Amino acid sequence: MSIVEYTAQPSRVLFREGRSYVEGILLPEILGGRPCMYIHKVFVAEETRRAGVGGMLLEKAKDFAIRRGCHKVFLICKTDVVGFYKGCGYEGCGYVEDQHVMTLRLGGKVE
Ligand SMILES: CC(C)(COP(=O)(O)OP(=O)(O)OC[C@H]1O[C@@H](n2cnc3c(N)ncnc32)[C@H](O)[C@@H]1OP(=O)(O)O)[C@@H](O)C(=O)NCCC(=O)NCCS
């Protein structure tokens, strides 16, 4: 697997593997006084699903967030992919309208 990292804008990062990608947005000192990363998009090409690509892309995003001093990564998703994010270490922490808010703690105090 060869994952490419793009940081065209200082606050956005894209990890790509072929047609598959994860996009993260760095948010400033909110939610506990330290930056955090919001995962904006997650997509794995149909023909490579269930082969670890999504998990690897999220792992790259997590490593990037740690390097940038983030204390958490969070995202919003539908019920059918909650299992995928739980498998990647995320925990459910609430709802926005009918979607799940999932959080990955990176250490330190989380609000
Ligand atoms: C959800 C998605 C990103 C998963 O990507 P993937 O590359 O297939 O996932 P992985 O192969 O890395 O899976 C990691 C683990 O999650 C599990 N998993 C994958 N998709 C799952 C799902 N929909 N529900 C529950 N578990 C799932 C896998 O079985 C695997 O577990 P294992 O390690 O015990 O075998 C991909 O199916 C996708 O792009 N779907 C369409 C777009 C979408 O729904 N994006 C999310 C928007 S919030």
Distance between the termini: 35 Å
CATH superfamily heading: Gcn5-related N-acetyltransferase (GNAT)
Number of domains: 1
Percentage of residues in helical conformation:
10-25%
Mean pLDDT over the full residue set = 93
Number of E-state strands: 7
Strand order of the largest sheet: 1-2-3-4-5-7-6
| SSE string | EEEEHEHEE
> Can you name the CATH architecture?
3-Layer(aba) Sandwich
Assembly level: single chain
Associated small molecules = coenzyme A
| Rg measurement, Å | 13 Å
Number of H/I helices: 2
The fraction of residues in strands falls at: over 45%
Major sheet summary line: 7 strands, mixed
Apparent shape: globular
Question: What is the CATH domain class?
Answer: Alpha Beta
SS-derived structural category? alpha+beta
Low-confidence stretches: none
Q: What is the CATH topology assignment?
A: Aminopeptidase
